[in-house]
Amino acid sequence: MAKVSVLNMEGSEVGTIELSDAVFGVEVNEHLVHQAVLSQLANNRQGTQKAKTRSEVSGGGRKPWRQKGTGHARQGSTRSPQWTGGGVVFAPTPRDYSFKMNKKEKRIALKSALTSRVNEGKLIVVDELKFEAPKTKEFAKVMANLNTKKALVVLNENDANTVKSAKNIPTVKTALTNTINVYDILKYDTVVVEKAAVATIEEVYA
Question: Which residue stretches belong to region Disordered (predicted)?
């Protein structure tokens, strides 16, 4: 089991914690980590590009002129693609880019991401994060004490003061133990976890 120092909000060491090998000490599966990141990015794509084909454009029901004898080329509708206001040939339609990963694969990918952060020394455990009122300056001071700027902060409970304090810092994102994902873990330089959240993560994902 890996031993990690537990720090307080001032950045001082107040103890140590043993991390479970079942979550923070697994063999890193890079393929599944890559798949998890791709899946999340693909699932976030809207795919809402849309144009109308000739069957979807309103109007054009009447033949513009008779078939023969006018000197014009034959035309069946004013909504054909060659007409102004006509439909688009092979028009793009909304597309679903998402693809599914199995639960076991997602779990392995998440544990692999957490393990990689521990191996790189980029996981910081804090005894607790509590603020009497929402204060961005106070939260920034805590981040400075922990010697990190770009961090994913994992909370055990949805503490409104902590979340609001971090909200205006563009390089910090807060998450609960049930909302952490592979992309965020890898995106931020450091993962800051409350001591209570470590126990919850181990209980859920072990």
Answer: 43-87
CA 99, 105, 109 angle in degrees (round to 5)?
105
φ, ψ dihedrals at 126, nearest 5°: -115, 140
Cβ atoms of 175 and 153 within 8 Å: the answer is yes
106-142 residue pLDDT tens: 999 999 999 999 999 999 999 989 898 999 999 999 9
CB 196 within 8 A of CB 204: no
Determine the length of the chain.
206
Residues 47 and 96 sit within 8 Å (Cβ to Cβ): yes
**31: helix, strand or coil:** helix
| For range 143-170, the mean pLDDT | 92
- pLDDT surpasses 90 at 159: no
Q: How far is CA 107 from CA 28, 57, 152, 155, in A?
A: 12, 47, 19, 19
- Amino acid identity, position 3: K
Q: Where are the beta strands (DSSP E) in the chain?
A: 2-7, 13-19, 123-126, 151-155, 172-176, 190-194
Q: Report the percentage of the chain scoring pLDDT > 70.
A: 100
